[in-house]
Amino acid sequence: MNDKILIHVEGLQKEFAGGEVKALQNIDADIHSGEVVVVIGPSGSGKSTFLRCLNLLEVPTAGSIYFNDVDITDKSVDINLHRRKMGMVFQHFNLFPHMTILGNMTLAPIKLLGKSKTEAEAKAMELLKRVGLADRANAYPSQLSGGQKQRIAIVRALCMEPEVMLFDEPTSALDPEMVGEVLEVMKELAHEGMTMVVVTHEMGFAREVGDRVIFMADGMIVEEGTPEEIFSTPKQQRTKEFLAKVL
Amino acid sequence: MVEALESLWADLAADFYTCFIEKNRWKYLTSGLSNTLLITFFALLIGVVIGIVIAIVRSTYVKNYKEMKPGLGKKCLAVANWFCGVYLTVIRGTPVVVQLMIIYYCIFVSSNNGILIGAVSFGINSGAYVAEIFRSGIMSIDNGQFEAGRSLGFNYVQTLRYIVLPQAFKNVLPTLANEFIVLLKETSVAGYVAVRDLTKGGDIIRGATYQTFMPLLAVAAIYLALVMFFTRLVNILERRLRAGER
Ligand SMILES: Nc1ncnc2c1ncn2[C@@H]1O[C@H](COP(=O)(O)OP(=O)(O)OP(=O)(O)O)[C@@H](O)[C@H]1O
Ligand SMILES: [Mg+2]
Q1: Cβ–Cβ < 8 Å for B232, B238
Q2: pLDDT under 50: residue ranges of chain A
Q3: At residue B44, what are phi and psi to the nearest 5 degrees?
Protein backbone atom coordinates (compact mmCIF):
# COMPACT_ATOMS: atom_id res chain seq x y z
CA MET A 1 0.00 0.00 0.00
CA ASN A 2 1.18 3.50 -0.72
CA ASP A 3 -0.30 6.92 -0.27
CA LYS A 4 -1.61 7.45 -3.78
CA ILE A 5 -5.37 7.79 -3.75
CA LEU A 6 -6.67 5.69 -6.64
CA ILE A 7 -10.39 6.25 -6.09
CA HIS A 8 -11.79 9.20 -4.23
CA VAL A 9 -15.51 9.25 -3.47
CA GLU A 10 -17.17 12.49 -2.42
CA GLY A 11 -20.74 13.05 -1.28
CA LEU A 12 -21.96 10.01 -3.18
CA GLN A 13 -25.73 9.54 -3.21
CA LYS A 14 -27.86 7.04 -5.05
CA GLU A 15 -31.62 6.93 -5.14
CA PHE A 16 -33.86 4.37 -6.78
CA ALA A 17 -37.51 4.50 -7.79
CA GLY A 18 -37.53 8.26 -8.21
CA GLY A 19 -36.13 8.99 -4.75
CA GLU A 20 -38.25 6.54 -2.79
CA VAL A 21 -35.28 4.31 -2.04
CA LYS A 22 -32.20 6.08 -0.74
CA ALA A 23 -29.63 3.35 -1.32
CA LEU A 24 -26.61 5.56 -0.61
CA GLN A 25 -26.54 8.73 1.45
CA ASN A 26 -23.55 11.00 1.38
CA ILE A 27 -20.72 8.52 1.13
CA ASP A 28 -17.14 9.76 1.35
CA ALA A 29 -14.35 7.26 0.86
CA ASP A 30 -10.81 6.87 -0.42
CA ILE A 31 -9.28 3.78 -1.94
CA HIS A 32 -5.50 3.88 -1.89
CA SER A 33 -3.36 2.23 -4.49
CA GLY A 34 -2.46 -1.33 -3.44
CA GLU A 35 -5.03 -1.38 -0.66
CA VAL A 36 -7.54 -4.15 0.01
CA VAL A 37 -10.78 -2.61 1.24
CA VAL A 38 -13.47 -4.98 2.47
CA VAL A 39 -17.05 -3.73 2.62
CA ILE A 40 -19.36 -5.49 5.05
CA GLY A 41 -22.86 -4.81 6.29
CA PRO A 42 -26.39 -6.21 6.50
CA SER A 43 -28.45 -7.05 3.44
CA GLY A 44 -29.86 -3.99 1.71
CA SER A 45 -27.34 -1.65 3.32
CA GLY A 46 -26.08 -0.44 -0.05
CA LYS A 47 -22.83 -2.40 -0.42
CA SER A 48 -23.48 -3.52 -3.98
CA THR A 49 -24.79 -0.13 -4.98
CA PHE A 50 -21.64 1.50 -3.60
CA LEU A 51 -19.39 -0.92 -5.47
CA ARG A 52 -21.35 -0.56 -8.71
CA CYS A 53 -21.20 3.20 -8.48
CA LEU A 54 -17.39 3.01 -8.48
CA ASN A 55 -17.36 1.95 -12.13
CA LEU A 56 -20.63 3.71 -12.88
CA LEU A 57 -22.65 0.55 -13.52
CA GLU A 58 -25.03 2.50 -11.31
CA VAL A 59 -25.09 6.17 -12.15
CA PRO A 60 -24.93 8.19 -8.92
CA THR A 61 -27.76 10.60 -8.15
CA ALA A 62 -25.27 13.06 -6.66
CA GLY A 63 -21.62 13.27 -5.71
CA SER A 64 -18.33 12.68 -7.47
CA ILE A 65 -16.05 9.74 -8.01
CA TYR A 66 -12.44 10.47 -8.91
CA PHE A 67 -10.46 7.67 -10.51
CA ASN A 68 -6.82 8.61 -11.00
CA ASP A 69 -7.86 12.20 -10.26
CA VAL A 70 -10.44 12.26 -13.07
CA ASP A 71 -14.05 12.84 -12.08
CA ILE A 72 -15.68 9.94 -13.91
CA THR A 73 -19.19 11.14 -13.06
CA ASP A 74 -18.53 14.09 -15.34
CA LYS A 75 -20.76 13.74 -18.41
CA SER A 76 -17.94 14.60 -20.79
CA VAL A 77 -15.80 11.69 -19.60
CA ASP A 78 -15.76 8.51 -21.70
CA ILE A 79 -16.49 6.02 -18.95
CA ASN A 80 -15.70 3.06 -21.23
CA LEU A 81 -12.02 4.02 -21.24
CA HIS A 82 -11.90 4.11 -17.43
CA ARG A 83 -13.80 0.85 -17.00
CA ARG A 84 -11.01 -0.97 -18.83
CA LYS A 85 -8.85 -0.17 -15.83
CA MET A 86 -11.44 -1.31 -13.29
CA GLY A 87 -12.03 -5.04 -13.29
CA MET A 88 -15.28 -6.32 -11.84
CA VAL A 89 -16.25 -9.74 -10.54
CA PHE A 90 -19.91 -10.55 -10.00
CA GLN A 91 -21.72 -12.85 -7.64
CA HIS A 92 -23.10 -14.85 -10.55
CA PHE A 93 -19.85 -14.91 -12.60
CA ASN A 94 -21.50 -13.61 -15.79
CA LEU A 95 -19.22 -15.53 -18.10
CA PHE A 96 -20.21 -15.40 -21.76
CA PRO A 97 -21.83 -18.80 -22.36
CA HIS A 98 -21.39 -18.75 -26.13
CA MET A 99 -17.61 -18.51 -25.93
CA THR A 100 -14.85 -20.79 -24.71
CA ILE A 101 -12.87 -19.83 -21.64
CA LEU A 102 -10.11 -18.53 -23.88
CA GLY A 103 -12.71 -16.62 -25.91
CA ASN A 104 -14.10 -15.07 -22.74
CA MET A 105 -10.65 -13.95 -21.69
CA THR A 106 -9.38 -12.60 -24.98
CA LEU A 107 -12.47 -10.81 -26.31
CA ALA A 108 -11.90 -7.49 -24.57
CA PRO A 109 -8.09 -7.37 -24.97
CA ILE A 110 -8.47 -8.04 -28.71
CA LYS A 111 -11.42 -5.76 -29.41
CA LEU A 112 -10.61 -2.95 -26.99
CA LEU A 113 -6.84 -2.94 -26.55
CA GLY A 114 -6.05 -3.97 -30.10
CA LYS A 115 -3.98 -6.94 -28.99
CA SER A 116 -3.28 -9.69 -31.50
CA LYS A 117 -4.96 -13.02 -30.94
CA THR A 118 -1.63 -14.72 -30.19
CA GLU A 119 -0.64 -12.04 -27.74
CA ALA A 120 -3.99 -12.08 -25.95
CA GLU A 121 -4.07 -15.86 -25.79
CA ALA A 122 -0.54 -16.06 -24.43
CA LYS A 123 -1.50 -13.66 -21.65
CA ALA A 124 -4.70 -15.59 -20.97
CA MET A 125 -2.88 -18.92 -20.81
CA GLU A 126 -0.38 -17.51 -18.39
CA LEU A 127 -3.19 -16.37 -16.09
CA LEU A 128 -5.02 -19.67 -16.50
CA LYS A 129 -1.90 -21.52 -15.39
CA ARG A 130 -1.69 -19.36 -12.32
CA VAL A 131 -5.21 -20.30 -11.24
CA GLY A 132 -4.69 -23.93 -12.21
CA LEU A 133 -7.21 -24.00 -15.06
CA ALA A 134 -4.95 -24.11 -18.11
CA ASP A 135 -6.42 -27.45 -19.13
CA ARG A 136 -9.91 -25.92 -19.38
CA ALA A 137 -8.92 -23.21 -21.87
CA ASN A 138 -11.11 -24.61 -24.62
CA ALA A 139 -14.04 -25.64 -22.46
CA TYR A 140 -17.30 -23.70 -22.34
CA PRO A 141 -18.48 -22.04 -19.12
CA SER A 142 -21.34 -24.54 -18.78
CA GLN A 143 -18.76 -27.30 -18.42
CA LEU A 144 -17.16 -25.76 -15.33
CA SER A 145 -18.01 -25.86 -11.64
CA GLY A 146 -19.04 -22.68 -9.85
CA GLY A 147 -15.64 -22.26 -8.25
CA GLN A 148 -13.93 -22.70 -11.59
CA LYS A 149 -16.29 -20.21 -13.21
CA GLN A 150 -15.52 -17.59 -10.62
CA ARG A 151 -11.78 -18.12 -10.96
CA ILE A 152 -12.21 -17.65 -14.71
CA ALA A 153 -14.25 -14.49 -14.12
CA ILE A 154 -11.38 -13.13 -12.04
CA VAL A 155 -8.71 -13.84 -14.61
CA ARG A 156 -10.96 -12.57 -17.41
CA ALA A 157 -10.97 -9.21 -15.66
CA LEU A 158 -7.21 -9.45 -15.07
CA CYS A 159 -6.60 -9.85 -18.79
CA MET A 160 -7.34 -6.13 -19.14
CA GLU A 161 -4.55 -5.40 -16.63
CA PRO A 162 -6.80 -3.31 -14.40
CA GLU A 163 -5.58 -0.95 -11.72
CA VAL A 164 -8.33 -1.96 -9.33
CA MET A 165 -10.54 -5.00 -8.94
CA LEU A 166 -14.10 -4.72 -7.64
CA PHE A 167 -15.67 -7.85 -6.16
CA ASP A 168 -19.38 -8.11 -5.35
CA GLU A 169 -19.90 -11.10 -3.09
CA PRO A 170 -17.73 -13.32 -5.27
CA THR A 171 -18.29 -16.43 -3.15
CA SER A 172 -21.97 -16.06 -2.19
CA ALA A 173 -23.29 -18.16 -5.05
CA LEU A 174 -20.83 -20.99 -4.48
CA ASP A 175 -21.17 -24.31 -2.75
CA PRO A 176 -19.23 -24.14 0.53
CA GLU A 177 -16.49 -26.49 -0.66
CA MET A 178 -15.69 -24.16 -3.57
CA VAL A 179 -15.39 -20.95 -1.57
CA GLY A 180 -11.81 -21.68 -0.56
CA GLU A 181 -10.39 -21.97 -4.06
CA VAL A 182 -11.80 -18.57 -5.04
CA LEU A 183 -10.65 -16.84 -1.86
CA GLU A 184 -7.21 -18.33 -2.42
CA VAL A 185 -6.96 -16.65 -5.82
CA MET A 186 -8.12 -13.36 -4.32
CA LYS A 187 -5.59 -13.66 -1.52
CA GLU A 188 -2.79 -14.19 -4.00
CA LEU A 189 -3.95 -11.18 -5.95
CA ALA A 190 -3.90 -9.09 -2.80
CA HIS A 191 -0.38 -10.21 -1.99
CA GLU A 192 0.76 -9.18 -5.44
CA GLY A 193 -0.32 -5.67 -4.59
CA MET A 194 -3.58 -5.41 -6.53
CA THR A 195 -5.92 -2.69 -5.33
CA MET A 196 -9.16 -4.41 -4.36
CA VAL A 197 -12.59 -3.44 -3.12
CA VAL A 198 -14.39 -6.52 -1.89
CA VAL A 199 -18.00 -6.78 -0.78
CA THR A 200 -18.23 -10.03 1.14
CA HIS A 201 -19.75 -11.95 3.99
CA GLU A 202 -16.51 -13.88 4.48
CA MET A 203 -15.34 -12.35 7.73
CA GLY A 204 -12.30 -14.61 7.83
CA PHE A 205 -11.15 -13.18 4.53
CA ALA A 206 -11.85 -9.62 5.69
CA ARG A 207 -9.79 -10.14 8.81
CA GLU A 208 -6.90 -11.90 7.14
CA VAL A 209 -6.54 -10.08 3.84
CA GLY A 210 -8.24 -6.72 4.36
CA ASP A 211 -6.17 -3.62 5.01
CA ARG A 212 -9.27 -1.72 5.89
CA VAL A 213 -12.86 -2.70 6.63
CA ILE A 214 -15.84 -0.49 5.88
CA PHE A 215 -19.04 -1.28 7.72
CA MET A 216 -22.18 -0.01 5.99
CA ALA A 217 -25.77 0.21 7.19
CA ASP A 218 -28.78 2.03 5.78
CA GLY A 219 -26.83 3.46 2.88
CA MET A 220 -24.19 5.03 5.08
CA ILE A 221 -20.68 4.21 6.20
CA VAL A 222 -21.17 3.63 9.89
CA GLU A 223 -17.62 2.77 10.80
CA GLU A 224 -14.33 2.03 9.15
CA GLY A 225 -10.91 0.96 10.30
CA THR A 226 -8.38 -1.82 10.27
CA PRO A 227 -9.80 -5.33 10.61
CA GLU A 228 -8.41 -5.38 14.13
CA GLU A 229 -10.32 -2.20 15.03
CA ILE A 230 -13.59 -3.27 13.46
CA PHE A 231 -13.66 -6.88 14.61
CA SER A 232 -12.04 -6.57 18.04
CA THR A 233 -12.94 -3.10 19.23
CA PRO A 234 -15.92 -1.82 17.26
CA LYS A 235 -17.08 1.58 18.46
CA GLN A 236 -20.57 1.88 17.03
CA GLN A 237 -23.57 0.03 18.43
CA ARG A 238 -24.73 -0.91 14.86
CA THR A 239 -21.37 -2.51 14.14
CA LYS A 240 -21.42 -4.49 17.38
CA GLU A 241 -24.92 -5.77 16.71
CA PHE A 242 -24.04 -6.80 13.15
CA LEU A 243 -20.83 -8.56 14.20
CA ALA A 244 -22.61 -10.34 17.01
CA LYS A 245 -24.92 -11.82 14.41
CA VAL A 246 -22.36 -12.90 11.83
CA LEU A 247 -19.34 -13.93 13.89
CA MET B 1 -72.30 -48.79 -59.71
CA VAL B 2 -68.96 -49.86 -61.11
CA GLU B 3 -69.77 -47.99 -64.26
CA ALA B 4 -70.49 -44.83 -62.29
CA LEU B 5 -67.15 -45.15 -60.53
CA GLU B 6 -65.39 -45.76 -63.78
CA SER B 7 -66.90 -42.70 -65.40
CA LEU B 8 -66.05 -40.59 -62.33
CA TRP B 9 -62.50 -41.82 -62.57
CA ALA B 10 -62.40 -41.01 -66.27
CA ASP B 11 -63.75 -37.52 -65.58
CA LEU B 12 -61.12 -36.89 -62.95
CA ALA B 13 -58.39 -38.13 -65.26
CA ALA B 14 -59.65 -35.87 -68.02
CA ASP B 15 -59.79 -32.91 -65.63
CA PHE B 16 -56.30 -33.67 -64.44
CA TYR B 17 -55.12 -33.77 -68.02
CA THR B 18 -56.75 -30.40 -68.85
CA CYS B 19 -55.45 -28.74 -65.72
CA PHE B 20 -51.88 -29.87 -65.59
CA ILE B 21 -50.75 -31.77 -68.69
CA GLU B 22 -52.40 -29.94 -71.57
CA LYS B 23 -50.27 -27.06 -72.81
CA ASN B 24 -47.79 -27.85 -70.05
CA ARG B 25 -50.00 -26.01 -67.55
CA TRP B 26 -48.15 -27.66 -64.64
CA LYS B 27 -45.43 -25.15 -65.36
CA TYR B 28 -47.63 -22.41 -63.86
CA LEU B 29 -47.42 -24.31 -60.59
CA THR B 30 -43.69 -25.00 -60.64
CA SER B 31 -42.70 -21.50 -61.67
CA GLY B 32 -45.23 -20.13 -59.18
CA LEU B 33 -43.74 -22.31 -56.49
CA SER B 34 -40.23 -21.14 -57.22
CA ASN B 35 -41.42 -17.51 -57.17
CA THR B 36 -43.17 -18.07 -53.85
CA LEU B 37 -40.03 -19.56 -52.34
CA LEU B 38 -37.83 -16.78 -53.74
CA ILE B 39 -40.17 -14.06 -52.50
CA THR B 40 -40.40 -15.65 -49.07
CA PHE B 41 -36.66 -16.14 -48.79
CA PHE B 42 -35.70 -12.62 -49.81
CA ALA B 43 -38.55 -11.10 -47.84
CA LEU B 44 -37.29 -12.82 -44.70
CA LEU B 45 -33.77 -11.62 -45.48
CA ILE B 46 -34.98 -8.04 -45.79
CA GLY B 47 -37.16 -8.54 -42.73
CA VAL B 48 -34.21 -9.78 -40.68
CA VAL B 49 -32.06 -6.79 -41.65
CA ILE B 50 -34.85 -4.32 -40.85
CA GLY B 51 -35.77 -6.27 -37.73
CA ILE B 52 -32.24 -6.32 -36.29
CA VAL B 53 -31.78 -2.60 -36.87
CA ILE B 54 -35.11 -1.76 -35.23
CA ALA B 55 -34.51 -4.13 -32.34
CA ILE B 56 -31.11 -2.56 -31.70
CA VAL B 57 -32.51 0.96 -31.84
CA ARG B 58 -35.41 0.16 -29.56
CA SER B 59 -33.50 -1.85 -26.97
CA THR B 60 -30.71 0.72 -26.95
CA TYR B 61 -33.31 3.38 -26.28
CA VAL B 62 -34.77 1.41 -23.40
CA LYS B 63 -31.49 0.33 -21.84
CA ASN B 64 -29.01 3.03 -22.65
CA TYR B 65 -30.75 6.32 -23.46
CA LYS B 66 -30.68 7.69 -19.93
CA GLU B 67 -26.96 7.28 -19.45
CA MET B 68 -25.99 8.68 -22.84
CA LYS B 69 -24.16 11.96 -23.00
CA PRO B 70 -26.32 14.79 -24.32
CA GLY B 71 -25.44 15.52 -27.92
CA LEU B 72 -26.04 14.54 -31.51
CA GLY B 73 -25.92 10.80 -30.87
CA LYS B 74 -28.58 10.99 -28.24
CA LYS B 75 -30.85 13.13 -30.43
CA CYS B 76 -30.39 10.76 -33.36
CA LEU B 77 -31.33 7.81 -31.16
CA ALA B 78 -34.48 9.58 -30.00
CA VAL B 79 -35.47 10.35 -33.59
CA ALA B 80 -34.62 6.85 -34.79
CA ASN B 81 -36.61 5.35 -31.95
CA TRP B 82 -39.58 7.51 -32.87
CA PHE B 83 -39.41 6.42 -36.51
CA CYS B 84 -39.19 2.79 -35.49
CA GLY B 85 -42.27 3.22 -33.32
CA VAL B 86 -44.22 4.74 -36.19
CA TYR B 87 -43.07 2.02 -38.57
CA LEU B 88 -44.13 -0.75 -36.19
CA THR B 89 -47.51 0.86 -35.56
CA VAL B 90 -48.29 1.44 -39.23
CA ILE B 91 -47.09 -1.94 -40.49
CA ARG B 92 -48.82 -3.92 -37.78
CA GLY B 93 -51.93 -1.78 -37.98
CA THR B 94 -52.67 -2.21 -41.69
CA PRO B 95 -53.43 -5.29 -43.81
CA VAL B 96 -50.54 -6.73 -45.75
CA VAL B 97 -52.55 -6.68 -48.99
CA VAL B 98 -53.03 -2.94 -48.69
CA GLN B 99 -49.31 -2.48 -48.06
CA LEU B 100 -48.59 -4.65 -51.08
CA MET B 101 -50.88 -2.60 -53.31
CA ILE B 102 -49.46 0.70 -52.08
CA ILE B 103 -45.96 -0.48 -52.86
CA TYR B 104 -46.98 -1.84 -56.26
CA TYR B 105 -49.18 1.00 -57.47
CA CYS B 106 -47.52 3.97 -55.77
CA ILE B 107 -43.85 3.13 -55.46
CA PHE B 108 -42.81 0.52 -58.00
CA VAL B 109 -44.99 2.12 -60.69
CA SER B 110 -42.72 1.33 -63.59
CA SER B 111 -41.48 -2.07 -62.49
CA ASN B 112 -43.07 -5.39 -63.23
CA ASN B 113 -40.45 -7.50 -61.54
CA GLY B 114 -42.84 -9.53 -59.44
CA ILE B 115 -40.23 -11.14 -57.24
CA LEU B 116 -38.64 -7.80 -56.39
CA ILE B 117 -41.99 -6.21 -55.57
CA GLY B 118 -43.06 -9.20 -53.51
CA ALA B 119 -39.77 -9.48 -51.62
CA VAL B 120 -39.71 -5.77 -50.80
CA SER B 121 -43.37 -5.61 -49.74
CA PHE B 122 -43.35 -8.71 -47.60
CA GLY B 123 -39.85 -7.86 -46.34
CA ILE B 124 -41.01 -4.49 -45.07
CA ASN B 125 -44.03 -6.15 -43.54
CA SER B 126 -42.14 -8.98 -41.92
CA GLY B 127 -39.49 -6.56 -40.61
CA ALA B 128 -42.02 -5.33 -38.08
CA TYR B 129 -42.62 -8.81 -36.75
CA VAL B 130 -38.98 -9.87 -36.88
CA ALA B 131 -38.11 -6.71 -34.94
CA GLU B 132 -40.32 -7.86 -32.10
CA ILE B 133 -38.77 -11.33 -32.23
CA PHE B 134 -35.28 -9.86 -31.94
CA ARG B 135 -36.29 -7.32 -29.34
CA SER B 136 -37.65 -9.98 -27.04
CA GLY B 137 -34.56 -12.06 -27.84
CA ILE B 138 -32.30 -9.23 -26.70
CA MET B 139 -34.43 -8.51 -23.65
CA SER B 140 -34.37 -12.17 -22.65
CA ILE B 141 -30.58 -12.14 -22.23
CA ASP B 142 -29.64 -11.84 -18.56
CA ASN B 143 -28.71 -8.32 -17.55
CA GLY B 144 -25.51 -9.74 -16.06
CA GLN B 145 -24.25 -10.28 -19.61
CA PHE B 146 -24.67 -6.58 -20.38
CA GLU B 147 -23.00 -5.67 -17.09
CA ALA B 148 -20.08 -8.01 -17.66
CA GLY B 149 -19.54 -6.51 -21.10
CA ARG B 150 -19.83 -2.94 -19.89
CA SER B 151 -17.54 -3.56 -16.92
CA LEU B 152 -14.81 -4.75 -19.29
CA GLY B 153 -15.05 -1.43 -21.12
CA PHE B 154 -17.27 -2.30 -24.07
CA ASN B 155 -19.75 0.39 -25.00
CA TYR B 156 -23.41 -0.50 -25.35
CA VAL B 157 -23.34 -1.28 -29.06
CA GLN B 158 -20.16 -3.38 -28.77
CA THR B 159 -21.72 -5.30 -25.91
CA LEU B 160 -24.73 -6.01 -28.09
CA ARG B 161 -22.61 -7.04 -31.03
CA TYR B 162 -20.07 -9.30 -29.37
CA ILE B 163 -21.94 -10.60 -26.35
CA VAL B 164 -25.71 -10.21 -26.47
CA LEU B 165 -26.72 -10.59 -30.12
CA PRO B 166 -24.87 -13.87 -30.73
CA GLN B 167 -26.77 -15.36 -27.79
CA ALA B 168 -30.06 -13.69 -28.68
CA PHE B 169 -29.77 -14.84 -32.29
CA LYS B 170 -29.37 -18.44 -31.20
CA ASN B 171 -32.40 -18.12 -28.92
CA VAL B 172 -34.67 -16.68 -31.59
CA LEU B 173 -33.59 -18.96 -34.43
CA PRO B 174 -36.57 -21.32 -34.08
CA THR B 175 -39.02 -18.40 -33.86
CA LEU B 176 -37.38 -16.86 -36.89
CA ALA B 177 -37.76 -20.10 -38.80
CA ASN B 178 -41.43 -20.12 -37.84
CA GLU B 179 -41.73 -16.61 -39.22
CA PHE B 180 -40.47 -18.03 -42.51
CA ILE B 181 -43.34 -20.52 -42.49
CA VAL B 182 -45.89 -17.83 -41.68
CA LEU B 183 -44.46 -15.67 -44.43
CA LEU B 184 -44.60 -18.54 -46.90
CA LYS B 185 -48.37 -18.68 -46.52
CA GLU B 186 -48.76 -14.92 -46.29
CA THR B 187 -47.13 -14.34 -49.68
CA SER B 188 -50.13 -16.08 -51.26
CA VAL B 189 -51.80 -12.69 -51.64
CA ALA B 190 -49.03 -11.53 -53.99
CA GLY B 191 -51.31 -12.34 -56.91
CA TYR B 192 -53.33 -9.23 -56.05
CA VAL B 193 -50.72 -7.17 -57.83
CA ALA B 194 -50.08 -9.58 -60.69
CA VAL B 195 -47.13 -11.31 -59.09
CA ARG B 196 -47.07 -14.87 -60.38
CA ASP B 197 -46.62 -16.82 -57.18
CA LEU B 198 -47.92 -20.31 -56.48
CA THR B 199 -51.48 -19.21 -55.69
CA LYS B 200 -51.62 -17.04 -58.79
CA GLY B 201 -50.33 -20.01 -60.81
CA GLY B 202 -53.27 -22.10 -59.69
CA ASP B 203 -55.61 -19.21 -60.38
CA ILE B 204 -54.29 -18.83 -63.92
CA ILE B 205 -54.99 -22.51 -64.56
CA ARG B 206 -58.48 -22.05 -63.13
CA GLY B 207 -59.10 -19.13 -65.48
CA ALA B 208 -57.82 -20.97 -68.51
CA THR B 209 -59.60 -24.27 -67.92
CA TYR B 210 -62.74 -23.23 -66.01
CA GLN B 211 -61.79 -25.97 -63.55
CA THR B 212 -61.89 -24.83 -59.92
CA PHE B 213 -61.41 -27.93 -57.82
CA MET B 214 -58.20 -29.43 -59.15
CA PRO B 215 -55.95 -26.38 -59.49
CA LEU B 216 -56.87 -25.03 -56.07
CA LEU B 217 -56.54 -28.43 -54.46
CA ALA B 218 -53.10 -28.80 -56.01
CA VAL B 219 -52.07 -25.37 -54.72
CA ALA B 220 -53.32 -26.18 -51.22
CA ALA B 221 -51.52 -29.54 -51.26
CA ILE B 222 -48.23 -27.93 -52.26
CA TYR B 223 -48.48 -25.30 -49.49
CA LEU B 224 -49.31 -27.99 -46.97
CA ALA B 225 -46.40 -30.14 -48.04
CA LEU B 226 -44.03 -27.17 -47.81
CA VAL B 227 -45.28 -26.12 -44.40
CA MET B 228 -45.04 -29.65 -43.06
CA PHE B 229 -41.54 -30.00 -44.47
CA PHE B 230 -40.28 -26.72 -42.99
CA THR B 231 -42.00 -27.34 -39.66
CA ARG B 232 -40.08 -30.59 -39.44
CA LEU B 233 -36.85 -28.78 -40.17
CA VAL B 234 -37.63 -26.23 -37.44
CA ASN B 235 -38.29 -28.99 -34.96
CA ILE B 236 -35.01 -30.66 -35.76
CA LEU B 237 -33.24 -27.30 -35.47
CA GLU B 238 -34.89 -26.66 -32.12
CA ARG B 239 -33.84 -30.03 -30.79
CA ARG B 240 -30.27 -29.51 -31.99
CA LEU B 241 -30.09 -26.10 -30.32
CA ARG B 242 -31.50 -27.41 -27.08
CA ALA B 243 -29.06 -30.32 -27.08
CA GLY B 244 -26.21 -27.83 -27.42
CA GLU B 245 -27.32 -25.93 -24.36
CA ARG B 246 -25.67 -26.04 -20.96
N1 LIG C 1 -32.20 -1.40 -9.32
C2 LIG C 1 -32.78 -1.09 -8.14
N3 LIG C 1 -34.01 -0.57 -8.12
C4 LIG C 1 -34.60 -0.24 -6.95
N5 LIG C 1 -34.04 -0.41 -5.75
C6 LIG C 1 -32.81 -0.93 -5.70
C7 LIG C 1 -32.11 -1.31 -6.89
N8 LIG C 1 -30.91 -1.80 -6.54
C9 LIG C 1 -30.85 -1.75 -5.20
N10 LIG C 1 -31.99 -1.23 -4.69
C11 LIG C 1 -32.26 -0.98 -3.25
O12 LIG C 1 -31.18 -0.26 -2.72
C13 LIG C 1 -30.86 -0.72 -1.41
C14 LIG C 1 -29.43 -1.15 -1.36
O15 LIG C 1 -29.28 -2.33 -2.17
P16 LIG C 1 -27.90 -3.08 -2.37
O17 LIG C 1 -28.12 -4.12 -3.38
O18 LIG C 1 -26.83 -2.09 -2.63
O19 LIG C 1 -27.67 -3.73 -0.95
P20 LIG C 1 -26.56 -4.77 -0.50
O21 LIG C 1 -25.93 -4.19 0.71
O22 LIG C 1 -25.68 -5.11 -1.62
O23 LIG C 1 -27.41 -6.02 -0.06
P24 LIG C 1 -27.10 -7.58 -0.21
O25 LIG C 1 -26.19 -7.96 0.90
O26 LIG C 1 -28.45 -8.20 -0.06
O27 LIG C 1 -26.52 -7.78 -1.57
C28 LIG C 1 -31.86 -1.82 -1.10
O29 LIG C 1 -32.89 -1.27 -0.35
C30 LIG C 1 -32.34 -2.26 -2.45
O31 LIG C 1 -33.65 -2.74 -2.36
MG1 LIG D 1 -25.35 -6.89 -2.80
Answers
A1: no
A2: none
A3: -65, -40
Q: Does a structural domain hold residue B11?
A: no
Shortest distance, CA B231 to any CA of chain A (angstroms): 26
What is this structure's pTM?
0.86
Say if ligand 1 is within 6 A of residue A45 CB.
Answer: yes
In a domain, B5, yes or no: no
pLDDT of residue B68: 78
- Which tens digit of pLDDT belongs to each residue from B106-147? 888 877 788 899 999 999 999 999 999 999 999 999 999 999
Residue-wise pLDDT tens digits, A32-55: 999 999 999 999 999 999 999 999
Per the structure, the complete domain to which residue B35 belongs is given by 29-244
Q: Which of A57, A76, A112 sits opposite B153 (nearest CB)?
A: A112
User: How many other CB atoms sit within 10 Å of the CB of residue B147?
Assistant: 18
What pLDDT does residue A6 have? Answer: 97
Residues of chain B falling short of pLDDT 70: 244-246
How many helices and strands in chain A, by DSSP H and E? Answer: 9, 10
Q: What CATH number is attached to the domain comprising B67?
A: 1.10.3720.10
Residue B3 lies in a domain: no
Residues whose CB is less than 8 angstroms from the CB of residue A230 and which lie 6 or more positions away in sequence, other chains included = A40, A213, A215, A223, A224, A239, A243
CB B33 within 8 A of CB B198: yes
The amino acid at A97:
P
Q: Do A80 and B66 touch (CB under 8 A)?
A: no
Quote the CA–CA distance of B81 and A29 in Å, as a whole number: 40
- Give the nearest chain B residue to A108 (CA atoms): B152
Cβ <8 Å between B167 and A98: yes
Angstrom CA distances, B232 to A106, B180, B219, stand at: 38, 13, 20
Does a structural domain hold residue B16? no
- Structural domain count of chain B: 1
Longest dimension (CA), chain B: 86
Q: SS3 for A44?
A: coil
Nearest to B152 by CA among B142, B163, B139, B137: B163
